[in-house]
Amino acid sequence: MPFVLLLIALALTLAGLALWQASDVRADRRAMDRLRARQPAAPARFDPALVASLPEPARRYFTFAIAPGTPLRTVAEIHMTGRFRLGSGEAARDLAMRAHQVLGAPEGFVWRMAARRGVLCLSGSDGLADGTSWTRFRMLGLFPLAHLGGTEDHGRSAFGRLAAEAVFWTPAAVLPGPGVTWEPVDDDTARVTLSHAGLPQSVDVTVDAEGRPVRVVFPRWSDADPERTYRLQPFGGDLSAFRDFGGFRLPTHVEAGNFYGTAAYAPFFLVDVTEVTFPASGPAAR
Predict the structure, then answer these.
(1) Is residue 286 in some structural domain?
(2) Alpha helix locations (H) across the chain?
(3) DSSP for 155-207?
(4) Domain count, the chain
(5) pTM here?
(6) Residue 262 lies in domain
(7) What CATH number is attached to the domain comprising 89?
(8) Could you read off the pLDDT of 156-214 as tens digits, one per residue?
(9) Could you tell me if residue 284 is inside a domain?
(10) Residue 195 within any structural domain of the chain
(11) In angstroms, how far is CA 14 from the centroid of its own chain?
(12) Cβ-defined contacts of 139-145 (< 8 Å, 24+)
């Protein structure tokens, strides 16, 4: 009898975990749909005159990244493969990864991923939408590994990621306007500051001679330190392998991580983009 009760308890636990996981997936999909719905229905088209008054590195960036006449769509869907590094130092392990993201600055993003190495399987999502943020990852699709979010600290950190990725994957979203300002740093670097819902985030964008954004660096509010205490820490990445997607020239190889520019830097996000699309306003087929 005790063995039967144990089996029943195990079955109920697994069923509960499966329902919890399914609820999270539904929440991710609803958030993705709400972000897609923010795509401008009749977007204006890019004219270099829109950036004529910006610092020279910023003008170079925009005229490289957006072809004249391109509809200024600000919501993108990005499919990627690559490696996700779990842990740090000698204990770090690289997991082969596939991910799908809906990115709609300044309102939010949803990044869903699945990664594995041998029998080690990790899946879940990172997101910021409707004023709340989350990190939800599971082992083997069921067992919670991380279920975080909903705090001011977590939301501020998520907004840092959103601002940085908007620079290189949705350049139309960082054109000068309400909540977006640009200022010079040096001959090849400009600083963009995004502000939304009381959160400001500055990102330094370094461009090459043709205007490719080859590096982004920003002070990220993060607890990725031995004390697990939130503080501003350098985060950044290198961008390469640019391709044209509907009039936008975007990087398809990204390597990024904490403590960029210091001896402690070890990129944990190493991805190759396979597809970028700009969905019509509203839900997209999945």
Answers:
(1) no
(2) 2-36, 56-65, 152-169
(3) HHHHHHHHHHHHHHH-GGGGSSBTTEEEEEEETTEEEEEEEETTEEEEEEEEE
(4) 1
(5) 0.91
(6) 2-41+48-277
(7) 2.50.20
(8) 999 999 999 999 999 999 999 999 999 999 999 999 999 999 999 999 999 999 999 99
(9) no
(10) yes
(11) 31
(12) 141/21, 142/14, 142/17, 142/18, 142/21, 143/17, 144/17, 144/20
